[in-house]
Amino acid sequence: MLKKLFVLLILILGLNVYSADNTSTTLSKLEDVTFGIDYSNEKPESRLSRLEKNIYGQSKTGSIKTRLDKINKDIAGDVIGEEITPTKDTFMNEDDIIASDGTENYPILNEIEQKLFNK
User: How many domains in the chain?
Assistant: First the structure.
């Protein structure tokens, strides 16, 4: 019985450490993006409060996990730093596209093609 209680206590402590580490990692990521620096030496509560004041204008109440999940959802924190494939070229206007009429002449390319492919 004592062994079971000991194992249960170890599991609970392990989950708390994992959760705290995950919270710290997420806070560091959000702080780095928001402030350009992370405050990993401070308590999670003050770090989260600083982020909320910067994002919402005021600190919120509730559990750290709930508040952190809300920030992540609101600013898409889970995809920060990931490359997003564009759906179209954002620097080109549709009016700038000119259709080819087949009469373009590129002398250098023509010479390369002639030397490589004999045509």
Answer: 1
